[in-house]
């Protein structure tokens, strides 16, 4: 009830929720009480949670931030929704705002309007999980689910003083998570601390036979090891992540955090990820290509927005898609179909796949000599609403430090390492495959 009251009082200023499921939340809370009274349930039973509106929730609208799905009510729950609510007993408060189909870095592409950053409501909260982070940062949920295709968990967590983790690709099921770029999409969590994030990630993770890319490998215990010392932990600082383009004040906060970790016994060294400059261009071929294919399903026939008074089938497709998708989604579909088309496939898509392998190789080499890679999450603090909406390329450059982890499929986390002029600064830690526990431990020790 307390969270629902805060949402009602404060969310009109932030716009962090698309749907608030008050009645259902109170019923789930009652059920949690009953479970706990019987001595059943676990550490998360009865704890409220907000869901990014990209996860299918049976009986509750799942819009993905798009007019295309404004009328869509999924007939089933995403695997993680079942795991967190039915199994762990968390209470769903509602569905969070997001960039349309998770395409964006500022939550300004949402059909439901932008989300404001609670630290300064003239600024963006980051994206695409802008609603998730704004809700948690403002105390409208203790934690929220989020997804990360190129940075959408870590960049918004950085801009709002939260901890956000994108696990290893395949660690968390994508079943019932609306697809953007399937080889990059990964679900995770944003929370106020690494410890909170560890509990939620633990409950979300695990093999799912309904997702063909899910990994059948034990998750291990993400929580018990949080208190371990980081003495001897080898942390590499890639020189490419501290080069031109990084704001001086951000660099200095990140270096302060490095000193704190060093004082705790971490062994710091400089490393190189030489192909880093190629990650943004590679991503902006691979992600739109996959998106153009995934979004072909929205044809106005099966579900989603359908244009009125179509003259024939082709007209129905064209008008439903023109009306249902916003400009950024249309731009991605155009780029994606272009790079996949005959004659351009080799020059763009195949080339991007080859470069992706080089980026992966950089990390493989790095993890031969270090345990974690550390750098800034973003080049600067949260920018003003509207500042980059007319310039897609400058918006795309927001993900310069986060995209490589998606291309390689490795886990990565962002945590706050201080403030510049009252605005949060994020520190990014990247780990080797399946090293979520180590990432969370390092973040928890710092916190
Ligand atoms: N900002 C990136 C994009 O627009 C990443 C989004 C994401 O991770 N979902 O594609």
TrEMBL record:
Catalytic residues in the record: 52, 128, 152
Species for this entry: Sinimarinibacterium flocculans
Keywords assigned by UniProt, alphabetized: ATP-binding, Ligase, Nucleotide-binding, Protein biosynthesis, Transferase
Catalytic activity: L-glutamyl-tRNA(Gln) + L-glutamine + ATP + H2O = L-glutaminyl-tRNA(Gln) + L-glutamate + ADP + phosphate + H(+)
Domain spans labelled Amidase: 1-440
Function per UniProt: Allows the formation of correctly charged Gln-tRNA(Gln) through the transamidation of misacylated Glu-tRNA(Gln) in organisms which lack glutaminyl-tRNA synthetase. The reaction takes place in the presence of glutamine and ATP through an activated gamma-phospho-Glu-tRNA(Gln).
A GO cellular component annotation in the UniProt record: glutamyl-tRNA(Gln) amidotransferase complex
Subunit structure: Heterotrimer of A, B and C subunits.
Record-level GO BP terms: translation
Lineage: Bacteria, Pseudomonadati, Pseudomonadota, Gammaproteobacteria, Nevskiales
An example molecular function term from Gene Ontology annotations: glutaminyl-tRNA synthase (glutamine-hydrolyzing) activity
Entry keyword annotation includes Mitochondrion: no
Similarity comment: Belongs to the amidase family. GatA subfamily.
Pfam families xref list: Amidase (PF01425)
InterPro entries the UniProt entry points to: Amidase (IPR000120), Amidase_dom (IPR023631), AS_sf (IPR036928), GatA (IPR004412)
SUPFAM superfamilies: Amidase signature (AS) enzymes
Protein name: Glutamyl-tRNA(Gln) amidotransferase subunit A
Listed EC numbers: 6.3.5.7
HAMAP family xref list: GatA
Domain of life, source organism: Bacteria
NCBIfam families named among the record's database cross-references: gatA
Keyword Nucleotide-binding applies: yes
